[in-house]
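Two proteins, back to back. First:
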Amino acid sequence: MNETIRATDWDALAAAIERRRDDLVALTQDLIRIPTLNPPGEAYLEACEYLQKRLQQQGFQVELIRAIGAPGDSDRYPRWNMIGRREGRHTGPCVHFNSHTDVVATGSGWTFDPFGAEVHEGRIYGRGACDMKGGLAASIIAVEAFVEVFPDYPGAIEISGTADEESGGYGGVAFLAEKGFFGPPRVDHVIIPEPLNKDRICLGHRGVWWAEIETHGRIAHGSMPFLGDCAVRHMGAVLQSFEDNLYPALAERTTPMPIVPDGARQSTMNVNSVHGGLADGYDGFPSACVPDSCRMVIDRRFLIEEDLGEVKSEVTALLDDLGEVRAGFSYDIRDIFEVCPTLTEKTAPVVRAVAGAIEQVLGRQAEFVISPGTYDQKHIDRIGKLKDCIAYGPGILDLAHQPDEYVGIDDMVDSAKVMAIALHGLLYGDQAI
């Protein structure tokens, strides 16, 4: 079917969303008040059951799926996911709205209750308000309004609430993608309502490589360190080599891709942690020992112009060079996590549909951006083999993981309108409104 949304239908759709404003606020508050902290992965089932009840009332067939065997899954902290599907009256494509239900630790510095979901001056405050329970709620409201106005729609609509995005997504989208839930022939288009600002479309993200480097030494009495070999000093040499050689090289590598913020338009590496000598958590007097092991975790983010193999070999080459000039130096390196950059073309149907909807609702052209970090698009692309996927949702990206995180109510309403119009375009075949 090919049909362009008529002005009267658009007015009806906008009005249906406006009527749900209070419901949107209440829904977002309910979701924030479920403390789905990850790690360790709390209250996932409670969140999924809440969503299941809501969607079943709207005619969705809902599945709750535990990611048994996925990293982090246990009987104490099971990785539960929810997928709801509502079939249309006619054959057509499937549009899927995917949101993660987990949130990061609250941290300190809050002036609002992190799980109170307080409304103040047009904002809802709480952990996950922005990232991304506000986006999840907006997508549900968008779909409910759409179904009211277009009850005879073609195709199918799916909404999911998935686990563990904040820790890689392996107990959520990755697991489900392996089972065929995120790719053809089941799904054709995916919108992930991450907080990218309501006038932005995120086309993809940089690549990432996490690795653990261990330097080796020889234990000895701390009063006679010359009889041992300090692994922490060896790690210090690694850090110095990074400062002298790697960081300057990374700073020279930039990309024309519209990564936000601007500082992420170059290659970067973060030293995530360094551990050596006395074990963590011990609060007594230390023993007088020369440490024989030191471990460092690195978080390397790379550009689409870079090759993952070359990213890895650049680091190992510096380590090998140290072995040539530093007596007793030896190391091991272990891959923890790796994802190549992903990019959806601007001409893709989902991009065109959302861009047209942004222009319709906000009266300005969409801004196309790339995320500095990864999100679950990586699994939809790599495992699901589905390229027609973007991130679009309400909320200010810089507020994610911050104290006093919030989402604007007006922003959620506007984003819900954008999602509803884009849904019409994708199901009926009109990408330009």
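And the second protein:
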Amino acid sequence: MSQQQVGRDPLRPVRTGPPSPGPDDGASRPGRFVGWLGGLGCVAAGYGVFQFLFQVLPGSLGGEAAQYLIASVSGFGTALAAWLAAALVRARAAEAARPTAPPPPVAAPAPGPLPQVLTAAYDTLVEQVSVVDDPDRGRLTGWSHSLGESTPSRPTSVGTAYGLQIMLDLGMTDGRLTPGELVDTLWRLRLPGGGWSARSQGAEPRPEVTALVLGALARAGVSGERLAQEVDRCTAAFTREHDHAGRESTHVVTTVLRGLLRAAPHCAALPALREALVDGAISDPGRDHLRCWGYRLDPPYGPPSPPHTAQAVVALERAARVLGENAAVRAAREDGVRWLLSCPDAPHHACLDLENAREEVRRPRTDDPARHEVLNVRHFTATWIVRALLSRGALEVARQDGLEDTWRELLDGAVAAVWAGQRDGIWSWGRGDSTELRHPMWMTYQGLAALRGHAVWTYRPDDTTTA
């Protein structure tokens, strides 16, 4: 054992390399000198300056008194400067030696209200799903036309199709419901001769309901081969000869067009349906003769209608992505967008263009042509405005015309109107002058889809949080 190790604490590590530089070594040597000068030699430095100046100043400067005054002031100034420099160096050294406090933790952002609304809507739909064992059709799992109906609810084609689409939008967050159950129910609700109809339409298939169901089934992953037969039946029956009332209805044509674009994007009937929609546009002298749509595609067209114009824009935008578009179709679609952007009313969260609308689609009954089947259609206008303005083509038109601020103002107003209409993620429709409210499945689907689409569109990730 060497002498250096005698008496060493056995728990203290032995330093075998060269000593590490301390805080006053290396680059800190000038600071150490100044610190010594200020701490120990500031008086001496001042006195040295005094002696030096007193000896070198000439006597002709003003006598011995002047020499004393100049040397004294210079010496005192030197001593004071040395003391201040040393104090500054000590303060900096103390600051450098002080441990750096860790930055305060960044609080996780609180969730906004939209996730709460989506969760509440999902829980409500799961709680109110209807499960019925039908002796003829088997087990049915789905929803009726409206939530909270007083009579025992039975799944319907329309309610279950919209419910399936809501669940697909929300992501089917748990196993209480599965898409397979809802898909099987829609197939079991198919009419004996094929196709689907609304509850008020009886046992005759209607193209708007059939296209709605086919679109939902396609979204759920049902193959095109399985849907092909129903697509053929739908298009074969949706002609002017077989369904004149449907072919002249803007609502029916746009619904069929959107559904078939999803279920059968290569369907031969799609170009003809789009052409009929474009040909049914009308000119509005109240808005610079821009083309828009009324509730009918044939005379009498009816007055210009915001919900029908928005429905046409949405259908034409979707068709353009699937089929492409020529100049005439593009011009009609862009005119519809410009018509929506020319809303003269304000404020836009409660403007006239956002008022809900209703119409009737009257068809002669095949079993008794003297009587009519009446389909009551209601339009949640604000959601259609949101969907139309959120289309890529709408923003392109707004930018071309220098109306991006107007586009944003109208979109924000429509979204605000949609948001204001819900309670815990469920939307309600009043029954005329009555205070009683209904909660149609289609309205909740459209409300949730509009809010979700707007949230996705406006999402801007923080670049500082991405890898």
